[in-house]
Design goal:
Layout (H helix, E strand, L loop, with lengths): L8 H7 L25 H8 L14 H14 L3 E5 L2 H12 L5 E5 L4 H10 L6 E5 L4 H7 L4 E7 L11 H10 L3 E5 L17 E5 L13 E5 L2 H14 L5 H11 L2 H21 L3 E5 L9 H7 L6 E6 L2 H11 L4 E2 L9 E3 L11 H6 L6 E5 L5 H12 L6
Parallel strand pairs: 2-3, 2-4, 4-5, 5-6, 10-11
Antiparallel strand pairs: 1-7, 6-7, 8-9, 9-12, 11-12
Helix pairs in contact: 3-9, 4-8, 12-14
Bound molecules: ligand LCS.
Ligand LCS binds next to helix 4.
Length: 397
């Protein structure tokens, strides 16, 4: 692809990060090597001093990893990106890069369970304070800000409540108080939401999910906006060591090619499933950003180009009823994780959000009966037929 050609997002998914390689392969080769040979001691030393460009050691950089990083940075509209060994590696590296002892973090209370646990149980051991807030109401963010607040950490839509935070509003508050806004964009992917366009300073992802899209890789990424940030983050990542390996980077880069097509299809499927569930007499409530019943429907319309593939709902009869549905599905798979081409169903209170504890879950609106679906790209009629038959196993309340 010509460097100076301006492409639309769906074309970028196919071409971003792809360059000309020796022997002319269309797909970036996998440099499955831990280390790179120096031409001389002088050249090796010059590479270490940063006087020459080149590869030294795969923890520091690798061409296959770099190709994928360039692709994700381009799709998010950032400057550069740093591939990590998991989403949690990306999140922990980000927070350890930006925070010092004595600093304070304000974070969305509805986040992936281990993110909350990392902030509350681990960072606190290093003297970093935190305040969880219901970030759907910007007043709560404003009230939680302190003179030592350095990071406002937002996950939107939040896992698993799908609570939506106004990104531009949250960024304005963070910046007014001299803090940075970090956004976990895992649930949307840049196909549906680009946080840099709404004032984010750093974007993180679990690439395990939609970016890779095929449930066969655990990986994460940090996307930054400037060369200074890139150098700062690269240095900390190099010391902490939680990098992605070349083969997983290759797989993610391959997955990115179909990102836009997958996100459109699974959003369409999820919209139909959400409507089906909302109309079902055995369903108590449905939370989906594409439904007008979603409390932040207007904000979703403003900052998301489609509602995405995640649907949460509760069946009348609470957890026992949800359990009956989850044990009866045949096409949907009972498993945690999300963002693949296959539809997954799970129970956050006993699975992904167990580590948060009941009190924090209740405060964040993660009810004991909440069931979460990650909608895939199967034929939507097959998915609805499966949910219909699974719901028939629930007794009428
Ligand atoms: N951020 C979000 C929004 C997530 O949903 C997850 C994982 C992570 C970060 C962490 O990424 P990882 O280290 O697993 O690559 N969410 C999961 C979930 O809901 N079910 O299983 C994993």
């Amino acid at each position: 692809m010509s460097e100076n050609m301006k492409l639309n997002f769906d074309s970028k998914c196919v071409h971003a990060g792809i360059e000309d390689y020796e022997h002319g392969p269309v797909i970036p080769p996998i440099y499955q090597t831990s280390t790179f040979k120096f031409k001389s001691t002088q050249q090796g030393a010059a590479l270490f001093r940063g006087e020459k460009e080149g590869y030294i050691y795969t923890r520091m950089s690798n061409p296959t990893v770099e190709a994928m990083e360039k692709a994700v940075a381009s799709l998010e509209g950032g400057y550069r990106a740093l591939g990590c060994g998991s989403g949690m590696a990306a999140i922990s590296t980000t927070l350890l890069t930006l925070l010092n002892t004595g600093d304070h973090v304000v974070f969305s209370e509805a986040v992936y369970g281990p993110t909350a646990t990392l902030i509350v149980n681990v960072l606190s051991r290093f003297g970093i304070e935190s305040t969880p807030v219901n970030s759907t109401d910007l007043k709560n963010i404003e009230e939680a800000m302190k003179p030592n607040t350095k990071v406002v950490y937002i996950e939107t839509p939040g896992n698993p409540t799908l609570a939506i935070t106004d990104l531009s509003g949250a960024a304005e508050i963070a910046h007014k108080h001299g803090a940075l806004m970090v956004v976990d964009n895992t649930f949307m992917s840049p196909a549906l939401q680009r946080p840099f366009e709404h004032g984010a300073d750093v974007v993180v992802h679990s690439m395990t999910k939609f970016l890779n899209g095929h449930a066969d890789v655990v990986a994460g990424i940090i996307v930054v906006k400037s060369h200074e940030d890139y150098k700062k983050f690269r240095s900390v990542l190099n010391q902490l060591g939680g990098v992605i390996d070349p083969f997983n980077a290759f797989l993610v880069h391959r997955g990115l090619k179909t990102l836009d097509v997958r996100m459109q299809r699974l959003s369409d499927n999820a919209m139909k499933i959400a409507k089906f569930l909302e109309a079902h007499p055995k369903v108590k409530w449905v939370r989906y950003p594409g439904l007008e019943s979603h409390p932040q429907y207007e904000i979703a319309q403003k900052q998301q180009s489609a509602p995405g593939g995640m649907v949460s709902f509760e069946i009348k009869g609470g957890f026992a009823a949800g359990e009956a549905v989850m044990n009866s599905v045949k096409l949907c798979t009972l498993a945690v994780s999300l963002g693949g081409v296959e539809t997954l169903i799970q129970h956050p209170a006993s699975m992904t959000h167990l580590s948060m504890g009941r009190e924090a879950r209740e405060k964040a609106g993660i009810t004991e009966g909440l069931v979460r679906i990650s909608v895939g790209i199967e034929n939507v009629n097959d998915l609805i037929a499966d949910l219909e038959q699974a719901l028939s196993h629930v007794e009428e309340v």
